[in-house]
Amino acid sequence: MFPTHCNVLNYFLKRFFVPIKGGVQSSRPQPQVIIPSAAFAGAIISFVLCPSELVKCRMQIQGTDSLVPKCSGYSSSLDCALKTIKSDGVTGAFRGGSTTFLRESIGNAVFFSVYEYVRYYMHLQLKSGSSDHNNLVDMGIGILSGGLGGVAFWSTVLPLDVAKTIIQTAPDKSSLTNPFQVLNSIYRMSGLRGCYTGLGPTILRAFPANAAAIVTWEVAMKLLGIKNN
Length: 229
Hints:
This protein is mainly α.
């Protein structure tokens, strides 16, 4: 998933955390606002993402020769969800929930910190320069800030995502569910590289996907007449 799915929630949470001095909100990024609002938004959205990603991961490895044990007998995503609940109960759909919680909380704090600071300083440079500040420039800033935010997100939390996938696709109910124990096991077998399995394709996807999502978000905000400080 991409961290930009938290945009709306994060936008409103920032209004709760933002300090107001003299009746005016500061336009400069403030870590004491960005980090808790983004982390809280990620924590909330993790409860939606966990069961949906569990189904996605189990469907993806089904019928493959992956080292991860096969999941068999799923005819559709709905069938996978229903069979998971039938065999493991409702809590089974939230297997890997703590790992998803950590990934989204930490990842979104990183994403929105990078996004806000890159956006702020690029706008600052343009204001001090002679360049005309137009819609095309705004789009360019959105592409760079959103793309770099996405790269920062996945560079930080990819090991947690690797652990989450292993936890969610393990067929044995008694398998490890502590992400740090899973990562320790991976590290002992494959080193740091094993913890960052799939980093290349993930980064290649992260930049354009998050850049497009942020530009779409900012255009929508502008069309709705909502100021995005």
